[in-house]
Design brief:
five-stranded mixed sheet, 16 strands, about 475 residues, single chain, Chloramphenicol Acetyltransferase, alpha+beta
């Protein structure tokens, strides 16, 4: 039984210490490789038309934490020679999780900056924080089709001078975005009294339990070749991550198309980086794009923690060298990508692969395993995937906060440390696609991020028009 599946039980009395749960593989690898310069955080921002009542929201969110007790945890202390990191489960939060910062200019921009630079500590339960940004600055922060990154000015829009943003920052060593969103959906139901049951949960394909040797990924290139890197743009002098968010139409598909919106996003990401690299004089190389796959149910029984598994979608150098893309070319690339993503999703394997599971076996003290893990991470850097595309898909909950209204936009972002240096995270709400571009400042600048956003929008639109015909 893993920590994700472990039922949370707490001390029954003052004499009993809190229960401890060993770190699962994903948590331990992340814990070994923490860096102060680029914290491993996930950010979620939920835009509401109104502002929730502070006392009611705090009560609802605290009760939601109790109903998902696996989120109430902190890293347990231990001697240097211990063989495992352990989570210590707590009955109540150690800190005030929900805060309402005073309205100020650029409040949302500052909240984004905090999310990228200040991770909630693992030493206090729970390792998340929820800030409620309420003012016209939140409502005007993102225009439809516009952006507002952590280093850019807010766009103007026709949004009303009201509204709020629920801004969650998560320490990714402990939790991922979908798990924290499940907790927020419970809080919304407790606050507003409206049913926040999820839409149809994601289902694995019929071949999901097929042995790895039985899965054919077609003409995919070899995984042994070092993949392309995102070419360096104009780095910024300060360390850490930068971010830009954008709202776009959900891409349409030709009727009866064999590919999904996720495949369109994958192709748009690959063509965006290929175009960027050509502009910067990089020679063609194969691409590999990491894609998280989440098979968990979205109901109250959803395991809380880091529950996604990572697969890598390959592209050959020849597939991405063209400078002119006809509808027929893009249609062919979409079909090949769809075949690969279906096959890769069907693989049954550990979250980070069998090597990581072996590396985290509790044979040596954690301090020695940490040193080995960091060394192997540096040695394997040339083979790390080109980028990460995390597609949350349609947000499965209504996120109806009663008098504060129902969420009309939800953004996520994933860490973007080198050697990847760039991540793209997407989600759709209310018929709109919400995209976050996050990058390492040692690789790219805010201007570079804006250019990449424009390229992504261009190629995503191009996936709507293939040889099957123009989408009506």
């Amino acid at each position: 039984m893993t920590a994700l599946d472990h039922p949370a039980r707490h001390a029954d009395g003052p004499e009993r210490p809190p229960e401890r749960v060993p770190f699962p593989v994903v948590d331990e690898v992340s814990r070994h490789c923490l860096q102060e310069e680029e914290p491993e955080t996930v950010h979620i921002e939920v835009h509401l038309p109104g502002t929730p009542d502070p006392a009611r929201l705090k009560a609802a969110f605290t009760e939601a934490l109790r109903r998902h007790p696996r989120i109430l945890m902190r890293e347990a202390r231990g001697p240097w020679y211990r063989r495992r990191y352990e989570w210590e489960l707590t009955a109540e939060p150690d800190v005030e999780v929900v805060t309402f910062p005073a309205p100020e200019r650029d409040a949302l921009k500052k909240a984004r900056t905090r999310s990228l630079s200040e991770a909630p500590p693992l030493s206090a339960s729970p390792p998340i924080r929820l800030e409620v940004i309420a003012s016209e600055h939140a409502a005007k922060a993102v225009a439809p089709g516009g952006d507002n990154g952590s280093g850019s000015e807010a766009s103007t829009s026709d949004a009303p001078d009201s509204g709020s943003v629920l801004f969650l920052t998560i320490n990714h060593t402990a939790l991922d975005g979908p798990a924290c969103l499940r907790v927020l959906a419970t809080a919304a139901e407790l606050y507003g009294g409206q049913d926040n049951s999820p839409a149809a949960p994601p289902l694995r394909t019929a071949s999901s339990d097929a042995p790895e040797s039985a899965v054919d990924i077609g003409d995919a290139p070899s995984g042994w070749a070092p993949p392309a890197r995102v070419s360096r743009g104009t780095p910024e002098p300060s360390p850490g991550n930068g971010m830009l968010v954008s709202e776009l139409p959900v891409p349409r598909r030709p009727k009866g198309a064999p590919f999904t919106v996720n495949d369109q996003l994958m192709v748009a990401t690959a063509l965006m980086i290929a175009h960027w690299n050509r502009e910067h004089g990089a020679r063609p190389k194969p691409f590999r794009i990491t894609m998280p796959v989440d098979d968990r149910p979205r109901s109250m029984e959803m395991p809380i923690g880091n529950g996604t598994r990572l697969v890598e979608v390959p592209f050959s150098a020849a597939e991405l060298t063209s400078e002119e893309w006809s509808p027929e070319d893009i249609g062919a690339l979409l079909r090949r990508t769809a075949e690969r993503t279906r096959a890769l999703k069907a693989l049954s394997r550990p979250q980070l692969g069998r090597g990581a599971a072996l590396l985290t076996s509790p044979v040596l003290p954690v301090v020695l395993r940490a040193a080995v893990t960091r060394g192997l991470r540096r040695a394997a850097a040339p083979w790390t995937s080109t980028t990460l595309l995390s597609n949350i898909g349609r947000v499965p909950y209504s996120l109806d906060f009663g008098d504060a209204g129902r969420a009309h936009a939800v953004w996520f972002s994933a860490p973007a440390r080198l050697p990847r240096g760039l991540t793209v995270t997407t989600a759709s709400t209310a018929g709109r696609l919400h995209v976050a571009f996050r990058w390492s400042k040692s690789l790219l600048s805010s201007g570079d991020g804006a250019h990449l956003r424009d390229l992504f929008e261009h190629y995503l639109h191009a996936t709507e028009h293939t040889e099957e015909g123009t989408t009506p």
